[in-house]
Amino acid sequence: MASQIGLEGYEPLLRISTFQTVRKGLFFGFNSISRIGPELLDLVGEGAKLLLVTDKGVRGAGIVDKVLANLKGFEVDVFDEVETEPSIECAERVAAIAREGGYKAVVGVGGGSSLDMAKIASIMVTNPGKVADYLGRGKLKRCGLPMVLVPTTAGTGSETSPNVVMVVGRAKGWISDPRALPDVSIVDPMLTITMPPKLTAGTGLDALTHAVECIMSLNSSPLDEAINLAAAEMVGKYLRIAYSNGRDLRARYHMSLAAAMAGMALGTAGVVYGHSIGYTLSTRYHLPHGIACGLALPYVMEYNAIACPEKLARVAGAMGVDVRHLPPREAAVEGAKAVKALMEDVELPTSLSELGVPKGDLQELAAEVLEKYPRPNSPRQLTKEGALRLYERMWEGKIGD
Ligand SMILES: [Fe+2]
Fold first, then answer.
1. Which CATH architecture does the domain made up of 197-396 adopt?
2. Nearest Cα to Cα of residue 260 among 185, 183, 339, 165
C-alpha cells in the first residue's frame, strides 16, 4: 500500500490516528473552577451526592475549600486519604468507599495521585471485581460514574489521560483505558500557585517527559507530535520562571497548559523507556515520579538519537536550541543536553551518583527495567547491554561525550 501512495517512511500517516482525551470538555484558564458547578449540574443534576477524592496536603492548602465553595447545592463527601504514589491497596479502599456511598459522580482534586484515585472511584462503581482485574490496557467493561478532574499541580496530565498508575507490590502497575477518561477537566492555573518550588520542578519535568516521550513513541500521530512540541516549548520557556517565582501567573498558566496538553497523548502514543527507568528508580529509592522520570529523559533521548533523529531535532528546536546548522542527530543530542541544563537550573538531580545510588545496583536496575517495563512502542529497543550502558551514563551524568 505504501508503494501505491508514496508514503514510504511515513508510517504514522498509514495508520488511523486515535486521539483520546476528556469526553465532554476541558475548561482551561484562571478561575475556570467556577465552571465546576454548572458542569456537574449538567452531568448529574441538582442536589446529587458527590464523592470528592483528594489528599491531606491539598486540603490543608485550602484548595478543597475553594472547590467546595463552587459546589453549593450538591451533597459532597470528602475522602482525603490518598497517599503519594498510591498503592493498589489504597485503590481498593477508594473503590470500596465509592461503591458504598451511592454517589452520582466523582470529583478528583489534586496531583496525579488524587486524580488517578478519583478515576478508580469512578470506574470501580460500574465495573465488578477487584482493581487488579483491570490492570493493563483496555480491560474495563464499561465507563465509570461521571467524573470531573481538577489538577492542582502542573505535570502529571492525569486530567487529560485515560491512565491510572499505582504501586503493585514492588513495581508500578497501571490501568490504561478510554473508559477511565474524565468527562470534564477543569484546569485552573490559579490552583497551582501555592505549589512549592521543588514540586513545581518535579511535576514540570513529568510534563516535559510525557511530551518528549510521546513524540519519540512509534505510536505517535502527527496530532500527538504537534501538541507535544508545543507543550515542550512551553516547559522550556516557563518552568524556570515558575520555579523561581511561583506567583508568576504567566508561567503558571503555561505550565498548566503544557501539562494538560502533554497528558493528551499518554493513552495513545504512550511514554517509552524514560518512564520505565523512572519506575525502577522511584520504587527503589523513593524518588517522586516526575524527578525519577525527568532524570532518565535526557539519557533516553541520547539513546534514541540514532532511532528518531528528526523527531528529536524538532524537540531540540522547541527547547530553544538553534538547530538550523546541525545535522539531525547532533541536534537530537543537543536537545538532550538542553533538558539536562533545564534540570540543573531547577535544582533537580541529573545523575545517579549525585543521588548516592551505589554503582553496584546498576546491573539489577538494568535487569529490572527489561523484565518489568517493556516498551514495544519505543523507537529503539533496549538490549541487556544497552540498558546497562544507559544506566551507567545516568550514573556518570554524561551526555554527548
Ligand atoms: Fe509521568
1. Up-down Bundle (1.20)
2. 185
Give distance in angstroms: CA of 156 to centre of ligand 1.
5
CA of 292 to the centre of ligand 1 (A): 9
Q: What angle do helix axes 309-318 and 289-304 make, rounded to 10 degrees?
A: 130
Cβ atoms of residues 219 and 269 within 8 Å: yes
Strand pairing category for 105-110 and 163-168: unpaired
What is the per-residue pLDDT across 241-264, written as a single tens digit (0 to 9) for each? 999 999 999 999 999 999 999 999
pLDDT by residue (tens digit) across 31-50?
Answer: 999 999 999 999 999 999 99
pLDDT at 28: 96
Q: What is the pLDDT of residues 147-181, one digit of tens each?
A: 999 999 999 999 999 999 999 999 999 999 999 99
Alpha carbon of 53 to ligand 1 centroid (Å): 20
323 Cα to the center of ligand 1, angstroms: 27
Interval between CA 208 and ligand 1 midpoint (Å): 9
Residue 167 CA to ligand 1 centre (angstroms): 14
| Domain 25-191, classified CATH 3.40.50.1970, yes or no | yes
The Cα 395–Cα 5 span in angstroms is 46
Rounded CA Rg of the chain: 20
State the Cα–Cα distance between residues 266 and 13, nearest whole angstrom.
19
Instruction: Produce one character per residue of 283-307: b if its CB has 16 or more CB atoms within 10 Å, e if not.
Output: beeebbbbbbbbbbbbbbbbbbbee
Name residues whose C-beta falls within 8 Å of residue 167's C-beta, 6 or more positions apart in sequence: 85, 86, 87, 88, 173, 283
| Residue 278 C-alpha from the chain's centroid | 12
| Residue extent(s) of CATH 3.40.50.1970 domains in the chain | 25-191
Contact 252, 193 (CB under 8 A): yes
0.70 exceeded by the pTM? yes
Residue 72 buriedness (CB in 10 A; 0-12 / 13-18 / 19+) = exposed
The CA 304 to ligand 1 mean position distance, Å, reads 19
What spacing in Å lies between the alpha carbon of 254 and ligand 1's midpoint?
A: 18
CA of 40 to the centre of ligand 1 (A): 28
In the chain, list all ranges with CATH 1.20.1090.10. 197-396
Query: How remote is the CA of residue 244 from the centroid of ligand 1, in Å?
Result: 23
